[in-house]
Amino acid sequence: MDRYRVIVSDGVNFLQSMLATQLNHLVEEEQVLKHSIAVIEKFTCNLVQGKKLLIILALRVLHKEAEKIGSPAALQPRAGGSGPSVETETPTPAATTPAPSTSATTPTPMAAPLQPAKTQASRSGRMVTYPIESLSPYMNNWTIKARVAQKTDVRTWSNQRGEGKLFSVTLLDDSGEIRATGFNAAVDALFERIQEGKVYYISKAKVNLAKKKFNNVNNEYELTLERNTEVVECTDDADVPAVKFSFVPIAGLEGVAKDSLCDIIGIVKDIADVTTITSKATNREMTKRELTMVDTSGFSVRLTLWGKQAEQFSADVNSVIAFKSVKVGDFQGRTLSMSSASSFYVDPDIPEAHHLRGWYDATGNEQSYQSHTNAMQSGGGPNFDRAEILSLNEVKTRELGMSDRVDNFSSRATIAHIKAENVAYPACPTCNKKVLPMGDSWRCEKCDTSHPKPEYRYVFSMAVADYSGQAWFQAFNEIGRVVFGMSADELVDIKERDDAKFNQVLDKAIGTAYNFACRARQDNYNDQTRIRYGISRILPLDYREEATYLANLLLRSEWSR
After folding, report:
1. C-alpha dihedral (383, 389, 394, 399), degrees to nearest 10
2. CA–CA dist 450, 429 (Å, integer)
3. Does pTM surpass 0.70?
């Protein structure tokens, strides 16, 4: 995460400052320029190597473009005074000069802050607290006032170094959020005291760099709760937000990386019953429940609840639910899954929920929705990139896939022919491996089980063509669903009952153009090396989107100026 330094000036003095990360968009969208005039509405102040550093938490731009005001000099410390002063008035407009700072992986040192420690109070008698955004490993005495937005269960671990237990909470205030984790003795001391949804004054915790492998909260730091960490409940919680969301529309999930966490809000279109599965990794039984969520983007997505969340889920169909930090998967298209870091809120009192409710009651409950399963293939393949489309001739002349590594490419082509001999294979409903007929049943050697009937899955070759030439693409199950508009079971049933109708289905698929994301790799067959082009994702053409893209290309070209 980038941090931006700015120099602020009132025309007489200037001071080094840093923008809070929630204000980064002002610089990135060029809403703040050199000499812009702005009102700094909220800030905190730290000492860095003996110098004051202002951390700007809220900023209102008055004039984006302006001339330099005066000849300001560096702000000097007050004579004879090194103690803190708590600013309470809104400062006068300041000229700002943004400049990129170091990344979150190399944070700027921040030493002891200017404000009083936790045990002290301001002149008004109120406890002085720091915004979460201002915390750093270089601060000693601090107190935050934060809401517990999410709390995990106690988890245990056992390895060569010993055994232990831990729990985590996500803390939130109006400047940002941070993950806090307690281990062993801290679990005994704090787990029962800290309750989700309540607001606390928290101090004497350790600030560390966030371990992003285990922490997906949007903060470069995290807290370690210790046995002597002080946690005091606060009843004056009106100024602390309940939860912060950054919603992604369901249609936009394709652009979210696999295994990322995101927030969504939608209408519950369908609620499945609780089922039990056996985990392949641990061989333990797990309960799950699947929801189908829809929103105004016209897409639906399958979201899975696990364990107690699945068993205790009590919301009704057509409820509005906001999900926080759900995990993005790509099994049979984009899917979502609750994790230990996730939470959800039924019919939350937020503008997005009210908008969804009104839209769904008016028109949304009568429309149909496109599933992500129908728009992409399962597996961690590449995304389609319209700006990087290659013609089929370019794919061959560049010799993609000829090296030992796999090459990804995007293509737009029309289906010219489909090999009809073997479009699907009988698969095990559990592991998707091929099954063999054994009397009246079908045997899966991998699972060592028999099934009364198989589940057919697509695997076929099709010739595609564009203006430059032709190539053979390999297609699998989710690709076949898009191409034929039905499951492999349905197509195999048609083939067995009515060969003429089967040919009609194939003929209907021929001549349709798609956008493809593919993988090119070497394959050895009968001692001959050949290149196979496997389809990772398939997208029907959206002519409005294609026309908009072409129009933007024209607008950016030199001869359009």
Report:
1. -20
2. 10
3. no
